[in-house]
Amino acid sequence: MNSISLKNVSKEYRDFALRDVSFTVPQGSIMGLIGENGAGKTTVLKLVLNMIRADAGRIEVFGLDHIKNEREIKEQIGVVMEESCFYEALRCKEAAAILRNLFKTWDDALFRTYAERFGLPWEKQLKEFSRGMKMKLSIAAALSHRPRLLILDEATSGLDPVVRSEILDVFLDFIQDEEHSILISSHITSDLEKVADYITFLHEGRVVLSENKDKMLYGYGILKCGEKEFARIAPEDVLRCRRSAFGYEVLTADKNAAARKYPDLTLDSAALEDVMLLMIKGETV
Length: 285
Ligand SMILES: Nc1ncnc2c1ncn2[C@@H]1O[C@H](COP(=O)(O)OP(=O)(O)OP(=O)(O)O)[C@@H](O)[C@H]1O
Known about the structure:
There is one protein chain. By secondary structure, the protein is of the alpha/beta class. It is built from eleven helices and 14 strands. The strands form three sheets. Strands 6-7-8-3-9-10 form a six-stranded mixed β-sheet, with helices on both faces. Strands 2-1-4-5 form a four-stranded antiparallel β-sheet, covered by helices on one side. A four-stranded antiparallel β-sheet has the order 12-13-11-14, with helices on both faces. The longest helix is centred in the middle third of the chain and has 14 residues, at 161-174. It is elongated, with a radius of gyration of 21 Å. The protein binds adenosine-5'-triphosphate (ATP). Adenosine-5'-triphosphate binds at residues 13-16, 35, 37-43.
């Protein structure tokens, strides 16, 4: 069962188009959405949340049409967008009072527990909160109506490593329930490397790859070599290549096969960031 499914979704703006986007978020998993600034990540999240309408394609959430069943679906989704949407003069306890009225399933005790876990001051106005505190508040609020699905836009960007790690732990706890799932966009590929089960990589409005993360990280590799050695590499082994002052970097989709075929060349594992950089900046042969 998929929590989210997008099939051939397109959306056109004047200077940008999201084209034929398809991917699924299996129930019980974390899907990380990566891509450069302006790749279309927020647009995808807004489409799933029916904040904007697609020009074409089909979107299902919990197996239901996301427009026809919007109310039922929204009750079961916790959302955190990049900017805090709370009124600055509020305090935590007043935010809780508002949210209690918005969600049938709001759980005051759970919100208190998260506020304590995150060290959020109960009596302070939100305008006195740091960026990290505001983000933690948004996450606590998103979790406290007991959603089945979390949708998060850049929930860890601009935060220090300690706060990020606390937040990632909360996501991993959330996903312990196999009915739960998370769709999270992030620039911080190392965070997604830690928690995501699947990665969808968007580039200029298109899905470049959507894969199981471990398969991708164990499968992809980077061959490093000089001009002469590069000439020996078969084109079918080159997903992308890039020339630098130190020689060639070649992204290959099958690290083990490359190790057997080119035993004399340096072969490194590819981190998510390397894959992203080479897919964007590299060339095909
Ligand atoms: N309402 C809109 N009208 C016109 N263009 C828009 C609108 N919303 C977004 N865009 C354009 O769509 C493109 C994708 O934007 P989007 O916010 O989805 O990217 P992103 O991958 O989330 O980027 P970032 O990482 O910088 O947040 C951008 O070129 C943006 O200018």
